[in-house]
Amino acid sequence: MIVQTELLDAQDPAQREACVRRAAQTITRGGLVAFSTETVYGLGANARDAGAVRRIFIAKGRPEINPIIVHAANHEAARQLARSWSTLADLLAAHFWPGPLTLVVEAHRDIPREVTGGLDTVGLRVPRHALALALLEAAGTPIAAPSANRSSRISPTTAAHVLRDLSGRVELVLDGGPAPGGIESTVLDLTAQPPRLLRPGLTPPAAIEALIGPIERGGAIDSTSAVLRSPGLLARHYAPQTPLELCPDDGAALVRSLCDAGRRVGWLRFLNEEEAGSRADALGGHSESKYAADVNLVEMRLSREWTACARGLYGALHALDEAGLDRILVAAPPEGDDWLAIRDRLTRAAHA
Length: 352
Ligand code: TXA
Ligand code: MG
Description:
- This protein is of the alpha/beta class.
- Helices cover about 35% and strands about 15% of the residues.
- Magnesium ion (MG) binds next to loops.
């Protein structure tokens, strides 16, 4: 189905209320609205309308077994979507919501199977972004929303990214400016004992463990059982169309040899110490594009502070993917637990 896609700029405070009202109407009438959240842009439909949710799969080209996260306006509204609500769910929700943590719990039987992908669980989250919350309030219904990209592509962090993938496939794009978090929510399965990390994301596992004790995090990335529990964890995901390689080091030697061989190379690397000291503020955590004197090289840099890196990561990958390059080389990210989500995304992007 081809539709006319309208872009609504909700960044202007004078326009905001009218934009939100229009978007909410589109949702309640069974339409699709892409909207900003604090993580990435979501592609939303009324979670109680099976037909509307089916349209998400068509627009994205998404496998039908892949369940969709349901966004709710508040803790109480989320709770009503679960069959039962444990004290653990209560504790996590009270502490991390609104925010980038998705809790997988047993689904209330009224939730369409299109949302759950046929599982008996549902992923729930209350987003923190003011525009997402305003949309949920105005729509008066929970909103099912995966990331607003074509299936297996890089998640969008701006309205322009959304339009590039989904123009002609969704009714509205609600532009709330760049998504401040830059990567997706953490997905935690509360039906497992102990709770299991299904996807690392913006809420660090250490913060979760500080609240509820150890969680199982080992198999989140590769194990078959994790894939079966969360079908969205297909190995190749979040990938640019240009072949991408994750280097074991900073990548400099490989970049040099490929450029010398006449290849057009994108090099995504991390600010080194001196640069970080003098330029991190100026970069504001976003990557910077530099067309080097070397015509074969497009270089972009990311912060060594993980939240700033997350904010700039997909924007940099989108930009490199647009630059008509032969290869994208990415330097090894810093070590450490905080970098788990970023390592996960880069590993998937590199998985050919
Ligand atoms: O930050 C985010 O989570 C964004 C924004 C829009 O909220 N959404 C997002 O959705 O990233 P999506 O569909 O691109 O990724 C959702 C992930 C998938 O890996 C999916 O398999 C998993 O969550 N998931 C959703 N419901 C699940 C369930 N009931 N059981 C297991 N995994 C589930
Ligand atoms: Mg996604």
